[in-house]
Amino acid sequence: MADTLTLEGAIAWLGAFRDAVHEHGDHLTELDSAIGDADHGSNLVRGTDAVMAALDPPPDTVAALGKKTGMTLVTSVGGASGPLYGTFFLRAGAAAGDVTELDAAALGTVLRAGVDGIRSRGKAELGDKTMYDALGPAVDTYDAAVAAGDDIATAARAAAAAAAEGRDATEPMEARKGRASYLGERSVGHVDPGSASATMLLEALARTLAP
Amino acid sequence: MADTLTLEGAIAWLGAFRDAVHEHGDHLTELDSAIGDADHGSNLVRGTDAVMAALDPPPDTVAALGKKTGMTLVTSVGGASGPLYGTFFLRAGAAAGDVTELDAAALGTVLRAGVDGIRSRGKAELGDKTMYDALGPAVDTYDAAVAAGDDIATAARAAAAAAAEGRDATEPMEARKGRASYLGERSVGHVDPGSASATMLLEALARTLAP
Amino acid sequence: MKKLINDPAAVLADALRGIEAAHPELRVDHQHRVIYRAEPKQDGKVAIISGGGSGHEPLHGGFVGPGMLDAACAGEVFTSPTPDQVVEATTAVDRGAGVLHIVKNYTGDVMNFEMAGELAAADSGVRVETVVTADDVAVQDSTYTAGRRGVGLTVLLEKIVGAAAEEGQDLDAVVALAQRVNDSGRSMGIALTSCTVPAAGRPTFDLPDDQMEVGVGIHGEPGRRRVPLAPASEIAEMLVEPVLADHDLTGGPAIVMLNGMGGTPLIELYVLYGEVARLLDAAGVPVARRLVGNYITSLDMAGASLTVLGADDDLLRLWDAPVDTSGLRWGV
Amino acid sequence: MKKLINDPAAVLADALRGIEAAHPELRVDHQHRVIYRAEPKQDGKVAIISGGGSGHEPLHGGFVGPGMLDAACAGEVFTSPTPDQVVEATTAVDRGAGVLHIVKNYTGDVMNFEMAGELAAADSGVRVETVVTADDVAVQDSTYTAGRRGVGLTVLLEKIVGAAAEEGQDLDAVVALAQRVNDSGRSMGIALTSCTVPAAGRPTFDLPDDQMEVGVGIHGEPGRRRVPLAPASEIAEMLVEPVLADHDLTGGPAIVMLNGMGGTPLIELYVLYGEVARLLDAAGVPVARRLVGNYITSLDMAGASLTVLGADDDLLRLWDAPVDTSGLRWGV
Ligand SMILES: Nc1ncnc2c1ncn2[C@@H]1O[C@H](COP(=O)(O)OP(=O)(O)O)[C@@H](O)[C@H]1O
Ligand SMILES: Nc1ncnc2c1ncn2[C@@H]1O[C@H](COP(=O)(O)OP(=O)(O)O)[C@@H](O)[C@H]1O
Ligand SMILES: [Mg+2]
Ligand SMILES: [Mg+2]
Ligand SMILES: [Mg+2]
Ligand SMILES: [Mg+2]
Prior knowledge:
Radius of gyration of chain A: 16 Å
Strand order of the largest sheet of chain C: 1-2-4-3-5-6
Mean pLDDT of chain C: 96
Bound molecules: adenosine-5'-diphosphate, magnesium ion
CATH topology of chain A: Serine Threonine Protein Phosphatase 5, Tetratricopeptide repeat
Radius of gyration of chain C: 19 Å
Largest interface: C-D, 61 and 61 residues
Oligomer: heterotetramer
Strand content of chain A: under 5%
């Protein structure tokens, strides 16, 4: 059973994320229709397609992969999710360094760096009804699992589950950041689209690492 | 049984026409929606209201009544039906002269003058799918009835029936005049709105003269 | 019906109040429903009047001003103005050089302006000439019918003859110019939706989501035929081909207007214009001037119309001449 | 979905082709999706850039030209442009006097322009300043939230700071002016229908025939509340009251814009403006300048927004200064 995320694995992760975004793009846009501007799905479809196109030829280090992925998202998506997911991968790549695989602990450091990037870029707190409500709990859960001795695949599965919980928890929240905040209490009762796509990102990671 | 149309009777006729146009205004507009611009009903509601308002104090001759009615329609309706119905009453009044009642023959002369006015104003022929397809047969039938010795009420009833027939006959026609002509063969299968309102005008006359 | 209005029967009166409030450079006669320039033009110059049913804004009131119209007579929605309105405007704007009436070819408009011309001449002795625009190629012309509708070309004609009158051309010259423009321009329109006449309260016609109307006018009437909804590239062909087939426009420089029907946003008009420009170029029509936007609308109808005018140096000069109206403004 | 488009994913690229064909006075960089003046302004003058999601036309591309913007960065429909677009435009328009970025307050727009500012400064050393418009009174301001949306005031601000840059004011002065405009203007919007985002293919929200949305932005998002459809006289109150309640506008002369959302015809805007003008007058707001039309739209949404800017002689002078763009043109 794999106990590292290899460079190929990381590329496969991004491919799996792209596939998930394509499969559920309409759902993401529907969520964004309720409390946003109905483009989150098309934004990420455009962005992940651009990423996969940019990854051939594949970069030769995780650092290069993160930088390429981040810059491509930043320059192809726009909106709020472009800079946010873009920053996630730029910071993650920088934290990874010139390696070609990440063990369980290293992956934790990388994920944490990415999520911190989203936080500093978006200034969102837990409970603001954003993607951070899925990503924050996910990295905490991942670190705890690894600390408890879980292998990388088990920890990733736990992180994905925590993200899904965080996503569902956004439904009753009143948005304080992003477009949804303009709706005030009318934002209550809808899942935040970014928390849904962020959950797909972690579920894609778990699937990629699954034995 | 009345064998003349008095000045009061003529005013009552216009009142009855106004009531009919109000009652069936939506229907006229619906007909105009199919092959025109959806305003025939509102045009005639506006026009007949203006006429009844203009008739108080009432004019003291049929000539004055026709002039007042015609000018009011011309200046309040617009569109095609304004000048057409306006011309009808202007010419009718002029033909009536300074009298206060019309016998059966005189009414025939007056109606004929009005319809000729519509014809010269609109240059429509029978079969062009216009109000003339109702009015032409109506005056012919009226004259024939009077020539055959019918009284004024019977002749008016016959004229109204002929108008209704002429109205129904417009349905299969392809319009050659007015807005409906722009539809070409798509105008086939719809009754011409003006032929419908013209029939209401003659039915109102028949009702007014009915013993 | 969803509209920013009060009483549907008062739409015209209410709109005229808004126009007056929005445009200090205009004067509105609410009784006669005539929109004038606040500053009348100088004596001795030909005056230009137009008018028609309301619901086509900015036409005609939006084209009143220096370099274009002297007055616009506003009829009820989709109903031509009445002769008394036109007589009032005609006598008011005459500066001793006569008045040109610009009339779109519809039975009602023609008859009401006709009666007005007779009355004005009789009452006031003002010399009135009339030009009737009839540029819609969707309608086949014939002496047995009402003929073609006057649509988009009316906008271009009002601009060009307005400039000629402003520069002092006399009535005969202005009439001849108007006829020349009339003979050299053609239009074609399509609709994606019906419009809703306020007094009617519901769409004039029902159009399934996958269908469109080809060959519509500007009064919400259905078009010549109904076809499946098509992409902009094909819609551009439906507009360009009949226009070019009806009149050779490859010769001189062309003035092109892609007009929105009122409910179509500008971004869509630009998408369509990109396709139209490509086709005109391929057909060898040298486009010298262009307008893309809402100029002669049909209430809230979604759709567009194309107008192409075969011009020459003289027409281009008059086109480029200063115009200062809310609907068209340049060179001032 | 009924639109004059080709592939919904290509709407922006197709529209840019149409804009290029329609406006020889503009230059379009299709790769970076930036609209420039064909004739750049002189060296030594501050350059002004704006940008944002598409679907708001004429904003922003329609405001590029002498007296207003130097360039507009076009994002996908309702999606802010990306930093690389903004960096490209910033370096291209800089005339050595620095560049002002006009950004509407939306998380995405702010973050992308922020990244662009960092990159531009780093790469090229161009001095970049940013003003973020946030004039929508429908959203209550707070440091814990994304704050208010930038809407109609953006149009007035682009005109006024554009004039200041054109007359040679330096970057600090232009930034201070932009801030002054920002502090003195407020907006409020309503919608009668949703819009349809091409890529989504169906209306963003469903709105029953007897309901309307109050407090909408320009991205088809639902408003703050849903109320029964009201006559124009009451809708005018829904627009005027919150604007005046939020900011005292009775002092100086006011510049007023009644903006259409894209699917609302001009005749309705005039009906509504008549009511708005009446209310502003009753409230003692001295209206000095007015715009009625489609300036900052939300695709095919039916609705309107009101913007009122408390001005002074200086702002009026800059407002009246010549502007030559497809969206606003006077004095030229
Ligand atoms: N300040 C923020 N911090 C973190 N996430 C945010 C912030 N603002 C918005 N988001 C996320 O971005 C998502 C919307 O992305 P998207 O629809 O692509 O961009 P836009 O809102 O510009 O249309 C939201 O659902 C939310 O999760
Ligand atoms: N040339 C004509 N001669 C006679 N009647 C005509 C002519 N043109 C139109 N009409 C009549 O006018 C009617 C339409 O009237 P209306 O709808 O009020 O005016 P508009 O067509 O200007 O909207 C048609 O149904 C037709 O009967
Ligand atoms: Mg969104
Ligand atoms: Mg009609
Ligand atoms: Mg009509
Ligand atoms: Mg967006």
